[in-house]
Amino acid sequence: MKKTVLALAIAATTACAGVAQADVKVGFLGGFTGGIESLTPPIFDGAKLAVQEINDQGGLLDGEKMVMPSGDTTCSDASAASNAADRLVNSEQVTAIVGALCTGATIAAANNAAIPGGVVMVSPASTAPAVTDLDDDDLVFRTVPSDAFQGEQLAKLLLSKGIEDVAVTYVNNDYGQGLDDAFTKTFEAEGGSISANLAHEDNRADYRSEIGKLSSGGSQTLVVLAYADTSGQTILRQAYESGAFTQYAGGDGMVGNALVDAVGADVLEGMIATRPGSPDVPGSDIFNDLAEKADIDPSAVFAAQSYDAAFLLALAIEKNGSADREGLSKALRDVATAPGETILPGEWEKAKKLIGEGKEINYEGASGSAEFDDNGDVPGIVVEMAVEDGKFVTKGAIDE
């Protein structure tokens, strides 16, 4: 009997010794299908790059690996976003979430799964002002500035180029409405004229009726605040076919070379757009090098912000001392805020050591400072984009 008990004890000990450390799950919610399906892969790649570096430099906590299960929100379907978030929160049991990307998806995921589950979300792409006003128990953050700023900068950019009369159409959701409100307010306040301003529904095959109304005022410039893979693409194609406009402009949802390929480089040559960008800081240069080595386009819209979101959540988990959800929000603010020793992209081993020694750190990321305000928003810059020789190129930061 004693031999049997001893044998069982040894077997149990041996089995336990062979069991790997549990993974720490940080989910990713993106629009893998729908309006931004061509923009989502490099955003996901940015987050996965951070995960790879963390695992290569010692992993989380006691050597646990960070893994990133993902979910598809479709961008525009609130039910799909809620279901994807519910799976991550309640089935995958993630500690935190990078995402979502589209604002409506972020709001649906937060209200229906993340907030009830006490899960911190950090969106690298949800820019609508509506995110600021969420009753989120300090659980929803973003590494990208609000469209209240981007819309203002787009308006000033067009006016600085002598474009003083435009027609505007925007996708009829939180993203489109927020960006349109900010753009319209600034454009008109600064002396510009808007001949037509029209909301449109996403995912339709024909917008010729709307284009007729938009062109009736005689404006030569059409501003499209929508998504590159759905309504934005169709509207640009049909607007060109109508012959009514000679210049096109858009916001961050329209920035992607897949749009140029789909509509035609000759059609969109000279198109003007804006997107959140990265300031000229050390973190940006380091990220560019890391991304290029990983065969990721560092200029891809929201890739840097996604890297920062994943890296920040890992730092917060390390600071929190466990993979528990409780306390993570406070830890996130701690690692993102001065004072503390500066941590740059790629410096996981350094950060892990400092946290282990009980020292304060301050992450300065690929997209700049992550000093969250009371609403979980960050400062940021907006850059000018233009279509030149068949692709979007970055022209530089827009002066305030």
Automatic annotation (TrEMBL):
Membrane-spanning intervals of the chain: none
Parts forming coiled coils: none
Pfam families named among the record's database cross-references: Peripla_BP_6 (PF13458)
Domain Leucine-binding protein: 24-336
KW Signal (keyword) present: yes
Keywords: Amino-acid transport, Signal, Transport
Signal peptide residues on this chain, from the entry's feature table: 1-22
Biological process annotations from GO: amino acid transport
CDD domains listed in its UniProt record: PBP1_ABC_ligand_binding-like
Gene3D superfamilies the record matches: 3.40.50.2300
Homology family: Belongs to the leucine-binding protein family.
PANTHER family: LEUCINE-SPECIFIC-BINDING PROTEIN, PERIPLASMIC BINDING PROTEIN OF ABC TRANSPORTER FOR NATURAL AMINO ACIDS
Protein name: ABC transporter substrate-binding protein
